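Minimal example, chain plus flavin-adenine dinucleotide.
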Amino acid sequence: MTGPITHIIGAGMSGLSAAVSLIKTGHRVVVHESAGHAGGRCRSFHDEALGRRIDNGNHLLLGGNRAAHAYLKDIGAEASLTGPERAEFHFLDLKTAERWTVTLDAGFLPKAVFSKAGRVPGSRPLDYLKAFRLAWAGGETTVAQCLGPDNALFRRFWEPISVAILNTAAQEGAASLLSTVMRETLFRGQAACRPLIAKRGLSDSFVDPAVRFLEGRGADFRLNNRLRGLNIGDARVAGLDFGDGPAALDDGDTVVLAVPPPVAAGLLPGLEVPGEFRAIVNGHFRLERKIEGFSFLGLSGGLGQWLFVRGDVASVTVSAADDLAEEDNASIAGRLWADVALALGLGAVPLPPHRIVKEKRATFAQTPEQEKRRPGARTGLKNLFLAGDWTATGLPATIEGSIRSGRTAADLVLKT
Ligand SMILES: Cc1cc2nc3c(=O)[nH]c(=O)nc-3n(C[C@H](O)[C@H](O)[C@H](O)COP(=O)(O)OP(=O)(O)OC[C@H]3O[C@@H](n4cnc5c(N)ncnc54)[C@H](O)[C@@H]3O)c2cc1C
């Protein structure tokens, strides 16, 4: 291959998405990743304690995540997601043992308003009409101001959904971001609301096929290759420094910086980025036997918020978990296992082999204030573009947002 090269820094979802978009057009791509593997915050790994390959954290997608689906199609992994045929979200209250299901189809609102059986336990018809407030949510409004906080629908549906999407408590999470997701899912019908998970694991769906696709088209992957500095001159990046002095770029070469916000700000002085983060804690537990036909369940009244089961591994997620992430792993494991055992009706079973994964900077804090600090993909340098779930995509920090950010950066490269 000849022609200008795009250097992509970071092989998370944003960098991989930029690389896939570029290489499809015949563009030359070199991917530089500081870790020994691709995937960033969305990856699988073999865990010794469990003797299983697990994901760093449970990831849920929705049918309406159109960029994610297009990406999977590009890399030949479109059949690697699974989920219920209908847009059904099942919930369990661990304190009261009440169960309810929210089905997000065209009948969602009429059923809830006109029939008690169609409503979340304890909710009132008027609570549902508050959903329309999301459409007009201003940039300063929080989810709780918009949809709650004093009603059962908020506590039993909006709050768990919004903390899962924004990884930020509803009391401080930006309603405008939840609004964008709802416009692309809830307001587009059942297929767009279908919850989906990776059948075998995140890397099997999003990472390994992408690496194969890219390498098969001549991309050069350089793992364990941390970018340490940008050599800037004449309003462009003139060289990249990976620790052994700046390597000069050719005239037409471009750079996509797809690294976390503090790293981008360190490399590009003066860049304003979100500076607050929220943790996600996941507990993975190996069960005595496989559970078939169970995919995921929303929990309330306990510590865990969402429970996923794949084969004989139950994984429970706690988002916006900064305080919990400070606790020691043994105590977290005990508390989360109590929720899992109750939810799966296992009785008093001793703590099985487990792994606690703390992602202390899982996403930036998706508050109205931090939202304003998200930069666009263009920088002041003509051959440098930004990608990342923290850039100004208008979407929450999700796989969908990352993939779109990578595509935006790739489009700008191609226009350069
Ligand atoms: C536990 C957890 C649960 C989540 N749940 C969901 C979910 O349910 N649904 C959903 O859609 N999203 C979810 N997300 C969010 C999703 O994982 C992220 O939005 C996405 O993975 C971010 O990708 P990224 O490429 O923007 O960033 P990253 O994944 O952070 O990628 C940045 C990459 O840059 C590399 N890097 C850093 N510095 C350098 C350097 N100097 N040189 C070279 N490389 C460097 C890093 O090693 C990393 O690989 C979750 C995230 C976590 C952590």
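The longest strand covers residues 354-364. The chain has three domains: 5-45+201-275+368-415, 88-193, 277-364.
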